[in-house]
Structures are given as C-alpha cells and as structure tokens.
C-alpha cells in the first residue's frame, strides 16, 4: 500500500492566521481516511501507509419498510461483529502500534474514516433506481438497499475523554471536519440527510471509550425530521426564529453568545436536555462561517462541561446535529444541536418505560426551568475556572 495521499492536501479555514489542513488517504481495504490537522499542529505532513491485510468489506445492508409507520429500518447484521469495549491496548481508534493494528495508521489530531461495519453503505445510489426519499407509499414486504455512508470521527489520539474535554483548538478542528464532511457527503449520490453525532457513556450504549463521534448519511429524510416538517407546515416558516427569540427572553436560557444561544427547551423530554441554535438561518454545518465555528468551539464544550458539573461523575449523553435535508426545506429548517441525557439524579437514570417505549408519549421527570437554572450556575462556574 502506498503512503501517498489519495488526493492533495487542502487548506481549510484559517484559525489564528494558520489553516486547518485536510489530508485524504485510503485504508488497506479501500475505505477513505481523512486527517484534519489542527491550525497549531505539531505533526509532520507525512502519514504512514495502512499495511494491514483486511477481509473484504461486508455487503451493503438491506432496508425494510415498517408498514405500520411507513419508516425504513436498516437490517445491518454485520454490525454485530463490531468491537465491544476492548482493552486499552487494542483501541481501534488509537494510532497504530506494533501490538495494536488499529484503524488509523499514524498519529493524528482529528481523523475521519469510513465505518468498517456500516449501517448504511458502502454502496451509493445507482442511476435509474428509484429513491425512497419523498416516497410516502406503504406496502408489505418492501425492501431496498441501505445505501449511504457511515463515518467515524476521532476527536483525539488520546484514549479517554469526550468533546467537552478537548482544548479549543482541537474542538475547532472537529467542527471544521464536521462542516467539511457535511459538504462532501451531501454531494454524494442518493444522500438525503447528514447527521453528525456523539454518544458518551456506556449508559447510552457506547462500545468504545475513545473520544469520538459518528456521521450517518441517510438515503431518506429521518422520521424525526419528517415530524419537524409537519410542524413547520402547521406553524409557518418562522418556527425556528420564533423559538429562538422566545427562549432568549425566557428563564430557560443558559448562555447567549454573538452567534449561538444554548437553552433548555420548553417541552424537554429528558432530565437533561439542551438545544444550541445559531442566530441566523443556517441549513447545516457546511453553511456556518469561520466566526460562527470559532465561537462554537468555545461555547459548545463549555456547555458539556457545565452538564458534567452537575454531578460528581461524568454524565452520559447523546449529542446530535439536526441538519436540514439535502434537497428540501433548507430555508425553513435551522441547524440545531440537541444534547440529551437520561441522568435524573447522581445515581439514577431515566429508563424509557411503557408510555415512552410503546407509545412515544414522554413524561418529563424534571421541570425544564429547574434544569436550566442548575446549568446556568454550572456554566458560570466553568467559565470562571477557564478565565
């Protein structure tokens, strides 16, 4: 395997007068690997080749339609073989070492690669094959290929931590990677929606402790977004602007910056739930400016540190970037980060009981206003420690 990159290095946004650099490579089985170097990196430009001998990639999974809801379910059996809580010396996201044939050949700042056992992909749309996007018909036994792309985003070569523990420079690089991947993935055939997210904590199903996230690129518009579109149709195109204005004036606001505001939503489902909205209409991360990314690299990790400050031990959470579909509603759906945690006390979690699991009817355990008050205090303490 050649150590040469698959494409020339590319300078992205300038941070402090120096660029974040993108370096594309290819893994031994043909999967894409992209390094993103911090603006203040100390790494050399050279990256080692992936010299492993790997089995062929699993075939693209199958989607089946649930005739009761019209939703498409990916049946991705290959995911059962993925690594589950390996010992530290066999961390598949750490840089390769003589005793650890991991997924990343060289030391890195941020690395993104195609998932070895994806829920969607590696096949993309084939010309002439009808898409499920916009197809609201329902039938029995309907199947399609689970086309798309799933990627892993390694936040750091360190084996422990999360997005909230990253220094500002590294958080900025991850945000740049999210924006770049959103742009690239959105242009791939058949991709209808791009979803970057992070899971932290075994309580929410994490199988690797290494600080990382994922990006799912769906061949359909997600069910959650379809419900959002219905709400916009019922309310009007100013829904997000009106929510932001209301929360900025209310008691659930945590912090308001120049470009972003963080708040606990009025009808939060989870004991801890925080939404972060940009102050202008942006369909996705690719549309953000350098200034917006700079502020987010400070504000977002601080919100996560405020969440961790509520209890003596780190809090499990799911953080997901809800972005507009690639081909519709881009002037109405606003980019939004939603952070949710099932933690309702230091030693208690909210489990989805009958009403939530069976009927989708949530019952909140903690008033959102009380959560917001606690998070404002914790945020101020985190901000004070960092000054």
UniProtKB/TrEMBL annotation:
Cofactors, names only: Zn(2+)
Pfam family membership, one: GalP_UDP_tr_C
InterPro entries the record matches: GalP_UDPtransf1, GalP_UDPtransf1_His-AS, GalP_Utransf_C, GalP_Utransf_N, HIT-like_sf
Metabolic or biological pathway, per its Swiss-Prot or TrEMBL entry: Carbohydrate metabolism; galactose metabolism
The keyword Secreted is assigned to this record: no
EC number(s) recorded for this UniProt protein: 2.7.7.12
Organism: Subtercola vilae
PROSITE patterns with a match to the protein in the record: GAL_P_UDP_TRANSF_I
Substrates-to-products reaction catalysed: alpha-D-galactose 1-phosphate + UDP-alpha-D-glucose = alpha-D-glucose 1-phosphate + UDP-alpha-D-galactose
Alphabetic keyword roster: Carbohydrate metabolism, Galactose metabolism, Metal-binding, Nucleotidyltransferase, Transferase, Zinc
Alphabetized NCBIfam families for the sequence: galT_1 (TIGR00209)
Annotated ranges, domain Galactose-1-phosphate uridyl transferase C-terminal: 240-336
Domain of life per record: Bacteria
GO molecular function: UDP-glucose:hexose-1-phosphate uridylyltransferase activity; zinc ion binding
Catalytic residues identified in the record: 212 (tele-ump-histidine intermediate)
Biological-process GO terms, alphabetical: galactose catabolic process via UDP-galactose, Leloir pathway
Protein name: Galactose-1-phosphate uridylyltransferase
Family named by the database record: Belongs to the galactose-1-phosphate uridylyltransferase type 1 family.
Entry's Gene Ontology cellular component terms: cytoplasm
Residue ranges occupied by any Galactose-1-phosphate uridyl transferase N-terminal domain in the UniProt entry: 101-221
């Amino acid at each position: 395997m050649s150590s040469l990159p698959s494409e020339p290095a590319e300078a992205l946004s300038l941070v402090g007068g120096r660029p974040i650099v993108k370096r594309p490579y290819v893994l031994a089985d043909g999967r894409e690997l992209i390094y993103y170097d911090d603006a203040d990196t100390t790494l050399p430009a050279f990256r080692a080749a992936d010299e492993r001998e790997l089995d062929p990639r699993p075939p693209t999974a199958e989607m089946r339609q649930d005739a009761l809801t019209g939703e498409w379910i990916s049946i991705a059996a290959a995911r059962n073989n993925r690594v589950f809580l390996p010992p530290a010396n066999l961390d598949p996201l750490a840089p390769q070492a003589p005793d650890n044939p991991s997924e990343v050949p060289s030391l890195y700042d941020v690395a993104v690669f195609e998932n070895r056992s994806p829920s969607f992909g590696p096949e993309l749309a084939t010309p002439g094959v009808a898409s499920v996007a916009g197809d609201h018909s329902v039938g029995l036994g309907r199947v399609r290929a689970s086309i798309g792309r799933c990627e892993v985003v390694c936040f750091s070569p360190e084996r422990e931590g999360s997005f909230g523990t990253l220094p500002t420079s590294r958080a900025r690089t991850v945000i740049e990677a999210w924006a770049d991947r959103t742009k690239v993935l959105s242009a791939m055939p058949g991709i209808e929606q791009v979803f970057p997210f992070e899971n932290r904590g075994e309580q929410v199903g994490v199988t690797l402790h290494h600080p990382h996230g994922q990006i799912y690129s769906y061949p359909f518009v997600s069910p959650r977004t379809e419900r959002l579109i219905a709400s916009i149709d019922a309310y009007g195109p100013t829904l997000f602007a009106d929510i932001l204005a209301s929360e900025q004036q209310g008691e659930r606001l945590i912090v308001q910056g120049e470009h972003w505001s963080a708040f606990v939503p009025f009808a939060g489902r989870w004991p801890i739930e925080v939404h972060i909205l940009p102050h202008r209409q942006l369909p996705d991360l690719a549309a953000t400016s350098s200034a917006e990314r700079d502020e987010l690299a400070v504000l977002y990790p601080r919100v996560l540190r405020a969440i961790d400050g509520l209890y003596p031990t780190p809090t499990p959470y799911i953080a997901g970037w809800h972005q507009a579909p690639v081909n519709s509603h881009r002037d109405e759906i606003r980019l939004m980060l939603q952070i949710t945690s099932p933690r309702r006390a230091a030693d208690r979690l909210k489990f989805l009981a009958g009403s939530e699991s069976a009927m989708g009817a949530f019952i909140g355990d903690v008033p959102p206003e009380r959560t917001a008050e606690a998070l404002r205090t914790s945020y101020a303490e985190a901000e004070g420690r960092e000054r």
